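Bench log, entry 3. Co-assembly request; chain sequences pasted below exactly as received.
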Amino acid sequence: MLGNKSYLHCLQRQQAQERWWQKLDEQGYFEQLPCETVAVEFSLGRITAGSVFARQSVPHYNGAAMDGIALCAHDSFGAQETAPKRLRLLQPGEPFAAGGCYAIDTGDVLPNGTNAVIMIEDVHWADGMAEIIAAAAPWQHVRIIGEDIVAREMVIAEHEVITSADIAALLAAGVEAIEVIQRPKVAIIPTGDEIVASREELQAGKILDINSPMLAAALTSWGATALRRPIVKDERRCIVEAMEAALRESDMVIVIAGTSAGRDDYTADVLSELGEVLVHGVAMKPGKPVILAVCQGKPVIGLPGYPVSAMLTAELFLRDVAQARQKLPLTATSEETVTASLVKPVPSTIGMEEYLRVSVGQVEGKTIAVPVRRGAGLISSLTKAQGIMRIDAADAGVNTSTPLPIRLLRHARPAQHTILAVGSHDLALEILGVYLRRRMPHVSLSCANVGSMGGIMAIRNHEAHIAGIHMLDEATGQYNLPFVQRYVPGFLADLTDPTNPMDLTNPTGQTERTGRLIHLALRQQGLIVPPGNPLGIHSLADLTRPGLTFVNRQRGSGTRMLLDKELGKANIDGCQINGYEKEVATHMAVAASVLSGTADAGLGVQAAAQALGLAFIPIAQEQYDLLLNFSPDDERLQAIIEILHTMEFRREIEALGGYSLCKAGETVQVQ
Amino acid sequence: MLGNKSYLHCLQRQQAQERWWQKLDEQGYFEQLPCETVAVEFSLGRITAGSVFARQSVPHYNGAAMDGIALCAHDSFGAQETAPKRLRLLQPGEPFAAGGCYAIDTGDVLPNGTNAVIMIEDVHWADGMAEIIAAAAPWQHVRIIGEDIVAREMVIAEHEVITSADIAALLAAGVEAIEVIQRPKVAIIPTGDEIVASREELQAGKILDINSPMLAAALTSWGATALRRPIVKDERRCIVEAMEAALRESDMVIVIAGTSAGRDDYTADVLSELGEVLVHGVAMKPGKPVILAVCQGKPVIGLPGYPVSAMLTAELFLRDVAQARQKLPLTATSEETVTASLVKPVPSTIGMEEYLRVSVGQVEGKTIAVPVRRGAGLISSLTKAQGIMRIDAADAGVNTSTPLPIRLLRHARPAQHTILAVGSHDLALEILGVYLRRRMPHVSLSCANVGSMGGIMAIRNHEAHIAGIHMLDEATGQYNLPFVQRYVPGFLADLTDPTNPMDLTNPTGQTERTGRLIHLALRQQGLIVPPGNPLGIHSLADLTRPGLTFVNRQRGSGTRMLLDKELGKANIDGCQINGYEKEVATHMAVAASVLSGTADAGLGVQAAAQALGLAFIPIAQEQYDLLLNFSPDDERLQAIIEILHTMEFRREIEALGGYSLCKAGETVQVQ
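Structure output for the full assembly:
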């Protein structure tokens, strides 16, 4: 999308990082660190600019560490049970005299002349005298001055991240304000004639600037301060002015380059004029058209306009620099990673490093990664992914046998708790995920939409927990079960077999494959057409009308099979239908095509039509089932079946339109 | 320190956690979650209150994904290199006609009638016509509406932590404001007559409230909002009023109990009156006197007054509750832990769980934990520790052979980068740590002060990288080397042996023990006395004067050995000196004792006297060396030696007073 310009002479990612880091280091960028003074109380997470030394000792006086009596230890020597010693109780303020003692509470100042405390429990009172039956060691139960921290001692070293315990120690040591390293200020300059700042300005051909708020949030989490600048038009003079202003006020500048070929080179030109372009183009995907420059001793990065590219390149090139600038320990190494095998081989371009977004789950003890969609333009590929797998530039792709490390994105949810749903897409599945999470907050459900057949194959290969399927076997007239028995023989537990008890483990205690096929819903499939059905479409035959445009689902999907079967029944050939070759991956994508006018009709579920306010012509009711692959004692299996039986869940799905859940949760019995 | 009251009927920690959690759960505490609306732009890290659905599709129109021409794919069918097709260029706004095309840029709206884009590189211009030599597939290079996100699709599920990519996706999907779970408000009520809020009010017998700011910071990092309340006096009525006000305005209340016996039970009484006390006293150390209660359906926790106890019990009992309240994934499990062996056995009380603060480092491939001081009152034990080792209630202690898991506190600094310095204490060592970190930001130096002999033993047991030592061998008159040769025979590399090359590996490639003894400094030791030396102390003999009080260093320390040797030369017996039995662990602690008037004199280094403005009577100059245990190719070894040779480091140490570093960094040669 950027034209085969100069940046095609791409550097490898690591070379680019090194060139950028080395230049910044040479220029002393990581050394000239502006500081600021903050109240210790509010310094959590900041980085100390220098080592901090105690201004007072802690404790700052000799005090009692127990409730009891303060005495001179010498006076207690010789006391035994058989020969107690008696000490005269002195009044507070009364000068110490040998053989005397004072009543004292924890934290009280040790009176002059005394050097030990005896616990109240070990003191007998008799005739106003304190009777003791054991000698006190000098300084016992006394917190002596400086016992914790001594004045002038180092309390916290330079370039440390301040913790809550540090705050307590600093305040105790008399330090109330502290020099910390200033958060680096990073200016973000969005550019592009087509970019708008608000939804109000959004119209066809315009693009909302979602990169600025996304990068601002990311920078905040990296300890930097983001300075968002106004959108700059595609004029050289404007970009120069914006750059110059940004360089004056910030420690680092991001130019979001937009996506058109001309302008990107333009940004590079401006950066060459204002400083030095070190890297233009990196052999990675997404993120190829990144620019790394240094202007006036400050790093300037040109990020690609697609949000996924912008985010990934910012993480690779900006984060370390922003963190090193404030002496934060680099987090890259301590991030959580898992090792997983891909569900399907993924080809990749040799010479190009690829960052593949994946869902990650554990199926039958094996960690499995399912790629989400790959387009750099798809921000949903980042939000739906749980991790990122790096495919080396030297590789032509990744096969399924090589487990590879994956950097986790939402690291609070470990892979062993993720349920991988691979198969046909349905809104009900996503809502099932919401209900599951309410019961089991650590569990998340991740959907990969590969159609019904893809789902069955994933179950066969031990690579999914759930496959949503809806496929009619024309020979038997039965939905789903025949396909499962054909492609995954022996998978389904025969619950009717009396020798096979409900707990589904055989007498040896060894677990067998114990899959279940469970009803989810009957779904109304039909033609989705514009509101009011202006073209008067009433049957599949109407789709062959000249001038009418159809939108299809992808091969292997249950909906596509339904269409082809219904077309067969009606004796219609797909090539008679204009748009038959245009495939999209979900019901909602079909509805969206109709809503936008790209297509006049498409086959999909009623819920999708209803969601977008479109008209719907019923064609067939189909059975949508869930093929479940859990061990019988997996609590997630039980939770799913329970949820499917609740009225709350059934009503919520039925309200979507075209669903009947009266048999939801029932096992489809093996015939 | 709290008297043997009811709380001695302690629950085990886990029982206490379960009882507390179960009660809160029963009362629906984790369900009634107040929400608030925030701008998506500023929602980073917040938790979604419900699932959020797209309000518009992304992209919101069919647009070109490339610069080029937009055409009807049908018009291109049949185009080949040998039989190019020509398309008439239509003007923008001109209605589409078969055989026509429009010039289009990336992001432009696809004109009506067209359904594909051909890249500009693949178009030849001839006579104002676009000539193409290959057919276009329908919808190629078109970003269709909803390709990324379809309107009404779920963008983010409920109870998810919002990431920067989520912010981008939500904004793209037309969602500008979002319902998130309110941060729980936690009131912090410090109590105690002796507690003061500011340094100005601090005097002997008063204690600064460092718990409130420490806990407020910790709560902030756990996603909660801390409401700091004024310090409450030890009066029942005041505590009741403060509690009632706090319960009105917050979701959770912390009462910091202070340390006196009477008042602690008092707090429990008040909580019993206002609600139900579930737990009073937990078998753990530190932290025993914790109170867990529920008042008006809200959790109320009474924390012990010692900051270490307060912090550890807050982490154990408060953090999970605060995080579950806002549906944050519990972090406890994903925290970084390492497994390490203790340097020395640590005894512990059976029936009492103990949380031991430790330094952690890797020595010769083995992960080693060195306990820091244990007192619950020592906040420095938390700030200097790198991890916490839990000793089970069933254990009488931990021996050195059992590696145990350690929860890391400053998890950005992995154990393999920590240098363990075990031995005699010296300020110069801490400053060496600062210099090291400037060169190697990932490295930190952790000092455990166990005296010179303890340091040699740690090296002998492969449990330290550095031992700071200063011990005079009376027989030879030589410092340090004789002890190393006696107690760690064969450890020091003979650098003068021509068969032993500098790289210190033998020809088989196997690494031998290759220790080094390196000069650090000549230190002036002497008597530290009050400013102006009011008692006119001029020699060790003066210490025997009646009425004069001395403070000593612990046995095994080089300073103690120096004292005993000098006393022997002067024919003085230790028992003639008042205070000879009072031991402290560092030079600074000696100086602090003198500054506070606890002692009239003590033996220590000049730097300590100078730091606290005390007078100093020189007694002897001693040699302080570093025994180093690194493999010869360890870059930290090289860095240490280089730093010791720099003028900058030498000047900084010499400015402390009483140091000479002219030989710093030189190897003490094996004789």
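Confidence is low (pLDDT under 50) at residues 1-8, 500-511 of chain B. Chain B touches chain A through 125 residues (CB under 8 Å).
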